[in-house]
Every structure is written in structure tokens, then in C-alpha cells.
Automatic annotation (TrEMBL):
Organism: Hymenobacter yonginensis
Function: Catalyzes the condensation of pantoate with beta-alanine in an ATP-dependent reaction via a pantoyl-adenylate intermediate.
Lineage start: Bacteria, Pseudomonadati, Bacteroidota, Cytophagia, Cytophagales
Location of this chain's protein in the cell: Cytoplasm
Protein name listed in UniProt: Pantothenate synthetase
Similarity section: Belongs to the pantothenate synthetase family.
Length: 281
């Protein structure tokens, strides 16, 4: 596995691969890799000749300086996991390399970003769209891989790819969970033993809510019951629990036949912000 640190080196490498007729897969990450990331790398390796994994804790997508400062950074341990998973190139740029000058461009994804993460983390999707666009230009992948734990992020990147005519296929994979249901996340490493013990309550709330949706319980009631279940454990502060259309991400007020919904939440637990979601077809 090659480790590259500059945009120029990555661009030269991937352009060579393209000229040789190789298919390129890109897995953008912020590191502190877990089984969810490795599933994406393995899928990319099965579908592509060359797999580029980027690890970059992108400062422009953090609206909370402490969250950025405390985000786990484990480049050596990550590198050791990536080779066996099928990664060909690890791209590890510095902040200066990704942002030689502050970015002035601003993305507006309309209603897609006025809800949930976009509403609660001002500027977050602008930072995501900026860095993802840069990575797409530097690497020019045929396919780009994202995890569905960030359901709204996948929707935003899909819009980005469509609106800016990026010539690539977006591939997304379902959330990978711990045996007790907790969604795998790099931030889980920051949970104390006590917090980790109660963290599966989030998925339990989502599963109960999904059962409510399937049996026709009204959306507001589903939302209230889930919020009450989470907040019955005082260690949680619930930021939101939304019942949304799975495509438009707009709140669902009444059930319509054939419509898929996504149940999304964000909660704070022991100083760590966690998100999760479940899709109900
Ligand atoms: O999902 C993430 O880890 C990040 O938002 C991403 C897509 C790598 C952009 O920094």
C-alpha cells in the first residue's frame, strides 16, 4: 500500500491508473477506522482495480471546536488495517495541503440541508461538500463509497454529484452495528464505560419506532415515544428525533402508501455526539 500526502502525488498516481484503464474506487474517511469503514474498503476492492482511502479530519465540517480537537486520530493503526482490507493508496493530507487558502465557496443544498444535521450543525454540509469535491477532483474516482449511518450526508453528496456533474457512481452501504446494536462510529471510542453501557438505547429507540411505523402509529406519536424512551436514561440529551421522507428528508406528518421513511436521531452522551438512523421501507 502506498501512502501519499499531497494532492499532486495523488492526482499523478490516479491519472496513471486511469490511463492504464484501471477502475478507481475512493473511500473518503476521517480515520479512527472501524468495521463500517473496512466494509466500504472491501466492497471497493471487490469492484475496482485501485482503492484510494483518504483520511483527513476536515476542520471545515466541525461547528464545535472541542469535537474537532477530540476527534480520534490514529493514522498508524488505521494504516495497518487498510492494507489487508484491500486499500491500494492511503491519502493522508495535511490541513495546509487540503486548504492552501481558506475556502470562500458556499454550497446551498436547499431543503435537504435545512433539517437534522444541517439545521443543528451550521456550516457542516458546506464543509463536507467542499472537502468531498476537492477529493473527487484530486482522485477522479469511478466510484465513491459512503456509509449510510450518515444518511443525510449521502443525500447531500448525491445532490453534489448530480449538480456538479461529477462523472462517478456513488455507492452507499448500510450501517454496521456492534452486537448490542450500537452503530459503529469513530466517536464511540470517546465513550466512557458507563456511557458505552447505555449507548445501545439509541438503536432500541429506533427499532421500537420502526415497529410503530410498520403498525401505522402516527408519526408524531412515534417521535414522542422514541424521545421519551431515550430521555428516560438521564445520561442522554436528545438533540432531535425525526420521522422523515427517506429521499427528500422532509418531516413526515402522515403515512402515504409506498413512501419510505427514515428515522434519524442525534443525541449527546457523556460529552459525545452520536447519530443513528433506521430506514423503514
Ligand atoms: O463521513 C465522513 O467521515 C466525512 O464527513 C467525510 C465524508 C470523509 C468528509 O470529511
Amino acid at each position: 500500500m502506498e501512502i501519499l500526502h499531497t494532492a499532486a502525488a495523488l492526482h499523478a498516481y490516479t491519472e496513471n491508473c486511469r490511463r492504464a484503464g484501471q477502475r478507481l474506487g475512493l473511500v473518503p474517511t476521517m480515520g479512527a477506522l472501524h468495521a463500517g469503514h473496512l466494509q466500504l474498503v472491501q466492497a471497493a476492492a471487490a469492484a475496482c482495480d485501485v482503492v484510494v482511502v483518504s483520511i483527513f479530519v476536515n476542520p471545515t465540517q466541525f461547528n464545535n471546536p472541542d469535537d474537532f480537537r477530540l476527534y480520534p486520530r490514529l493514522p498508524e493503526a488505521d494504516a495497518a488495517l487498510l492494507g489487508p482490507a484491500g486499500c491500494t493508496v492511503l491519502f493522508l493530507p495535511s490541513v495546509e495541503e487540503m486548504y492552501p487558502q481558506p475556502s470562500v465557496l458556499h454550497f446551498d443544498f436547499g431543503p435537504l440541508e435545512r433539517v437534522m444535521e444541517g439545521a443543528h450543525r451550521p456550516g457542516h454540509f458546506n464543509g463536507v461538500a467542499t472537502v468531498v469535491s476537492k477529493l473527487f477532483h484530486m482522485c477522479r474516482p469511478h466510484q465513491a463509497y459512503f456509509g449510510q449511518k450518515d444518511w443525510q450526508q449521502v443525500a447531500i453528496v448525491r445532490q453534489l454529484v448530480q449538480d456538479l456533474s461529477f462523472d462517478l457512481e456513488l455507492v452507499s452501504f448500510p450501517t454496521v452495528r456492534e452486537p448490542d446494536g450500537l452503530a459503529m462510529s469513530s466517536r464511540n471510542r470517546r465513550l466512557s464505560t458507563e456511557a458505552r453501557a447505555v449507548a445501545p438505547r439509541l438503536y432500541e429507540a429506533l427499532e421500537q419506532a420502526a415497529a410503530g411505523v410498520r403498525s401505522g402509529v402516527a408519526p408524531t406519536q412515534v417521535q414522542q415515544q422514541a424521545a421519551a424512551y431515550i430521555m428516560a436514561e438521564p445520561a442522554f440529551t436528545l438533540e432531535y428525533f425525526e420521522v422523515a421522507d427517506a429521499q427528500t428528508l422532509q418531516p413526515v406528518e402522515a403515512w402515504e402508501p409506498g413512501r419510505s421513511v427514515v428515522l434519524c436521531l442525534a443525541a449527546h452522551l457523556g460529552g459525545v455526539r452520536l447519530i443513528d438512523n433506521v430506514v423503514v421501507e
